[in-house]
Design brief:
There is one protein chain. By secondary structure, this protein is mostly helical. It contains 22 helices and no strands. Helix 17 packs parallel to helix 19 (about 360-370). The N and C termini lie far apart (about 110 Å). About 30% of the residues are buried.
């Protein structure tokens, strides 16, 4: 059979590529070849006729019987269907696989654009096709398309607020049948979706999160989920550990933000320890917070509060002055009101601790409230000499002049402060 096939292929090739002068006789050449083939097959044609005649005699009773005709026609139809299926099944399966892949990619496109409703419809179509078609064979370029479509569908349901549908989509998947990469995606999706369920116990959710992290220890979404759940339940130590892992897993451009968040968690933990009377442990947490982000205000405020109780006013001011803020100046003002910064050199110490800040106005307010108008005036004048004059210094100087009996000067400065507050500085009227 193979030799005959090669012979005919060779003949057809030569007919297609015959010399130019023979092409005008091409039809006659083909007819001649057909005649030669029929003459060569003459004995076989007779034999074939006898075989067909015998088959006709066998089938004649069947054809003459209605039941026989019905059976024969259906048998022929079934045979034709089977032959067509065997001939075209691979091609049809590839066409359906291409359609499923097209719908999956369409869903991914909508998902990347946050069009979750449209994405869900595309993934639902892929899942429905997977009920009657083996997509692993139909889409040989991506055998796990059905599992991925279910995971993406669950994430779309989660964004649409349909948590029960999301859970159902994930529960139909079996991790043991998936590749390691798809197992990670499935575990992550389960942890994220389960965390939104109001029916599952916290232990079940935490177990899913831990299981997902065991498969993918540096997954930032899972680490944030674990951190937030720990912080929400008050387990700040666990939240800190998760955030430390986040800092290590973060990209260099994002590591600074993660370290700031870590510093904030340490500071929050320190605040709780202070409230519980564990001052030494709180100081250790404050040190860790400063090591993560020295610019954070809260740990320095806490350190100053502790120092004010244990080490004195000046030690507290040094801590607060690390990150000058309104809260720090308010604390300094409270110490002034309590008379804890009235010693020799305290004024110079405060000014040196808070360079180019509002500490002079804090001192001026304190001196004015205690009746030391001259000292208050000197503080405001020095503040303005530093080029820091503003609405607040004008208002304060107005109060000082009024206390000295200079009503016209006080009114003039009060008017200037009002115009500065309203943003009409330099205009004659409001």
């Amino acid at each position: 059979m193979k030799k005959a096939k090669n012979f005919f292929s060779s003949v057809l090739f030569r007919l297609r590529n015959m010399p130019g002068f023979l092409r005008k006789f091409k039809l006659w050449i083909i007819l001649g070849l057909v005649l030669l083939i029929l003459l060569a097959l003459g004995p076989w044609v007779g034999l074939l006729g006898q075989v067909l005649s015998g088959i006709g005699r066998v089938l004649e009773p069947v054809v003459n019987n209605p039941v026989g005709r019905f059976i024969l026609v259906n048998a022929i139809l079934i045979l034709v269907v089977v032959l067509v299926y065997r001939r075209f099944k691979d091609r049809g399966r590839r066409l359906l696989g291409a359609l499923a892949l097209d719908r999956f990619l369409g869903g991914m496109l909508h998902l990347s654009s946050a069009r979750y409703g449209r994405a869900a419809k595309q993934f639902e179509r892929v899942v429905r096709m997977g009920r009657w078609l083996n997509l692993a064979e139909a889409v040989d370029a991506y055998p796990e398309i059905l599992a991925d479509a279910r995971i993406k569908l669950a994430l779309c349901y989660r964004e649409l607020g349909e948590v029960e549908k999301a859970m159902k989509s994930l529960e139909l998947l079996h991790a043991r049948e998936l590749s390691p990469a798809m197992k990670k995606d499935l575990a992550e999706a389960k942890a994220v979706v389960y965390s939104l369920s109001g029916e599952l116990m916290d232990e079940t959710i935490d177990r899913e999160v831990d299981r997902a992290l065991d498969l993918d220890p540096s997954n930032r979404r899972l680490l944030r989920l674990r951190r937030d759940r720990a912080a929400r339940t008050g387990d700040l130590a666990a939240a800190v550990e998760s955030q430390k892992r986040l800092v290590k897993a973060a990209a260099p451009a994002e590591r600074g933000d993660e370290r700031t968040f870590l510093a904030a968690l340490h500071a929050r933990h320190a605040l709780r320890l202070v409230r519980n009377g564990k001052v030494d442990e709180a100081r250790a947490e404050i040190a860790r917070s400063r090591a993560s982000d020295p610019s954070l205000v809260l740990p320095n405020l806490l350190a100053g509060d502790i120092a004010a109780e244990r080490d004195g006013a000046r030690a507290a001011v040094k801590e607060w002055a690390r990150t000058p803020s309104v809260a720090a100046l308010e604390r300094v003002g409270r110490l002034l009101d309590e008379g804890k910064l009235e010693g020799e050199g305290d004024l110079e110490f405060l000014v040196a601790a808070f360079p180019r800040s509002g500490i002079l106005l804090v001192l001026a307010n304190h001196y004015l409230a205690s009746g030391r108008v001259h000292k208050a005036k000197n503080c405001v004048l020095k503040y303005e000499q530093l080029g820091l004059g503003n609405v607040h210094s004008s208002r304060l100087m107005s109060e000082i002049l009024r206390a000295e009996g200079d009503e016209s000067g006080a009114d003039r400065l009060a008017w200037r402060a009002l115009k500065g507050f309203l943003g009409v500085e330099g205009r004659e009227s409001v």
